[in-house]
Amino acid sequence: MLLKAHGVIGVRFTQRSYEWGSNLLEYTAIGTAVRLPNTPLGSRPFLSDLSGQEFWTLLQAGYYPTGVVTGYCSYYVSLGSRMTQQLRGWWGTGGNNQEVIPFSQAIYTSRHLAVTRAASMAGSQRALGIVGMHIDTNRQIIEYETDKPSAKYLDLFVHFSAVGTAITAIKKDHVIPPPKPTLTFTDLRPGRYGQNRELTFSE
Question: CA 107 to CA 40: how far, in whole Å?
C-alpha cells in the first residue's frame, strides 16, 4: 500500500526454524509490487503467486486476481502394535510392496482437507476459481517401541499444503492469446560475450 501498487505478484512463502528457539517458527512472504497503467487503485492491493508472464496472460484473458488462497492440513496416524507386527512379518518374507492402507488413507484425507480449505477460502472471496496452484507434501514415518509391555509401533505424519491465486472475471469474453514458441540460446562465437538471445519461430 505504501507503494500505491495495484497488487503483488510472485508471492512466495518461506518457513525457517532456529536451533536456539525450538518453539519458534519464522514465516516470510516475498513478492513484486506492480502498478497497472490507466487503472484505478482498488480498495486494497491483491496478492498473487503468479509470475509476471502468467499474470499478464491472466489479464489478457479477462480475469483478475482476488488474492492468494491457502489450504493446510497436518495429519497423524498410528498403526498400533498388532498391525506393526504384521507389517514386519510381511517385510521379513520379502513383501516389500505391501500397501499400508491406513497410511494411504491418511495421505488422501490430508490432501482432501487441504484442497477443500483452499476452495473454501476462494469462496469467501467470491472467486470463480483458483489458478497457479502449488502443491507440497511432507511425509515422515516414526518408529518407536515401549517397554511395558514391550511393543513396537509405526506412525505416519503427513503435512499437505495447497497455495494458489483466486480469480474473478473482469470482462465477458475470455480469449487467451496463443503462445509464441521461442528458443533461448547463449552466443559463444569468437568476439561475442555470451549474450542470451531469444528466437521466435514464425509460421
Answer: 44
Note the pTM of the prediction, 2 decimals: 0.70
pLDDT digits (tens, 9 = 90+) for 100-115: 788 889 999 999 999 9
Domain CATH code at residue 126: 3.30.110.70
Is it the case that residue 26 has pLDDT exceeding 70?
yes
Task: Determine contact, residues 70/44, Cβ cutoff 8 Å.
Answer: no
Q: How many domains, in total, are found in the chain?
A: 1
Alpha helix (H) residue ranges in the chain: 52-60, 81-92, 101-124
Could you give the C-alpha distances from 152 to 55, 80, 148, in angstroms and in order?
52, 8, 11
Task: Tell the burial category of 54 from Cβ atoms under 10 Å away from its Cβ (0-12, 13-18, 19+).
Answer: middle
